[in-house]
Design a protein that fits this description.
Length: 372
């Protein structure tokens, strides 16, 4: 796809910076992608995403947009980035993962996945071909191949079957594409078995996708195992294509992923936690509802220059939380997303300066202070 390009810029150990060019603009990597499941990053406007948060690409979900408003509706509005007035790069997940985690159970066959809508219970079916058809209607700059993500722990035999099916579905996803203005990424599976991860990486990277993702992590395994498998998997991924770790994770996870050579991340954590009153700061997590903040005039994070931290006290944010005010959710989401985007920006700078390892060590140490 010639309207999509990845340039590897600097490397520092295995960490790397790069530039992704898409029809809707450029993305500096490593990057965090805020999740806009139904086409909106919950409570946050596109202007805030751009000006206050520094987001460069947002994510939408095939499954949700197919159900509502319908992918044909999005297509008629000129595609997702125009429909939601974001007008910048977008990525859609392929739907399989959301079907497995949200829809009422489903039958997986080689043909595709049968499931019931979580909205009205109606019977639906998504195959690799159908996922690509829907994703082409949604029109994101980056589409994802249709894959099967197994929850962990799972029997090795099942992990093997899902991995083989993911390979067949990857080829079918690749062959189903009929547009040339959208990139398509393949997804590596293989559970937490190193030999399977190597096989899956070799299978998926044998198909000339525009980029490659690591799926099937952060689905029930221990954190050190997740890091080990992520580190192992990037070893088998091409250096000249973007690498995307799907649905991960905490600020700590991003720092580790970057050290293994991951370029892209997405997670609902900053937005979902914000709506639950949990804030990420340079000194660890902070629960805004706690009584101890009642009289605090300190910002959430003294090291943060987001709109929330520049203007509001912990005491006021606690009050908004207690009162169930929407503004509280908005201000918390603004801060958490700003924190994530500024973390990856600082990581990019550290890589360019060749000091990533030190940066990571110091940042992790400061975040583990906690106690706030
Ligand atoms: N596959 C897809 N989307 C995903 C995942 C996956 O394995 C994950 C796993 N962390 C999150 N989102 N298609
Ligand atoms: Zn802030």
């Amino acid at each position: 796809m010639d309207k999509f390009n990845f340039t590897l810029e600097e490397t520092d150990g295995r960490a790397r910076t790069g530039l992704i060019e898409t029809p809707h603009g450029n993305i500096e990597t490593p990057i965090f992608m805020p999740v806009g499941t139904v086409g909106s990053v919950k409570t946050i406007s596109p202007a805030e995403l751009t000006d206050d948060i520094g987001a460069q690409i947002i994510l939408g979900n095939t499954y949700h947009l197919h159900l509502r408003p319908g992918d044909e509706v999005v297509a008629k509005h000129g595609g997702l980035a125009k429909f939601n007035s974001w007008n910048k790069p977008t990525l859609t997940d392929s739907g399989g993962f959301q079907v497995f985690s949200l829809a009422e159970m489903n039958k997986i066959t080689d043909e595709g996945v049968h499931f019931r809508s979580h909205l009205d219970g109606s019977r639906l079916f998504i195959s690799p071909e159908e996922s690509i058809r829907i994703q082409q209607n949604i029109g994101a700059d980056i589409m994802m191949a249709f894959d099967e993500c197994v929850s962990l722990p799972s029997e090795r035999q099942y992990v093997v079957e899902a991995m083989e099916r993911t390979y067949r579905w990857a080829q079918r996803s690749f062959d189903a594409r009929t547009r040339d203005d959208q990139a398509l990424f393949g997804i590596i599976q293989g559970g937490v078995e190193k030999d399977l991860r190597k096989i899956s990486a070799e299978q998926i990277t044998s198909i000339p996708f525009d980029g490659f993702a690591i799926g099937g992590l952060s689905v029930g395994e221990e954190i050190p195992v997740m890091y080990d498998i992520c580190s192992h998997t990037t070893e088998f991924m091409p250096k000249d294509k973007p690498r995307y770790l799907m649905g991960v994770g905490t600020p700590q996870d991003l720092l580790h992923g970057i050290s293994y050579g991951v370029d892209m991340f997405d997670c609902v954590m900053p937005t979902r936690n914000a709506r639950n009153g949990l804030l990420f700061t340079s000194r660890g997590k902070l629960h805004i509802k706690r009584k101890e903040w009642e009289l605090s005039d300190a910002p959430v994070d003294a090291n943060c220059n987001c709109y929330t931290c520049r203007n509001f006290s912990r005491g006021y944010l606690r009050h908004l939380w207690k009162a169930g005010e929407y503004l509280g959710m908005r201000l918390n989401s603004l801060h958490n997303l700003h924190f994530y985007l500024s973390l990856v920006k600082r990581a990019r700078n550290a890589i360019k300066l060749g000091v990533y390892n030190n940066f990571m060590k110091e940042t992790l140490e400061e975040m583990s202070v906690g106690g706030e």
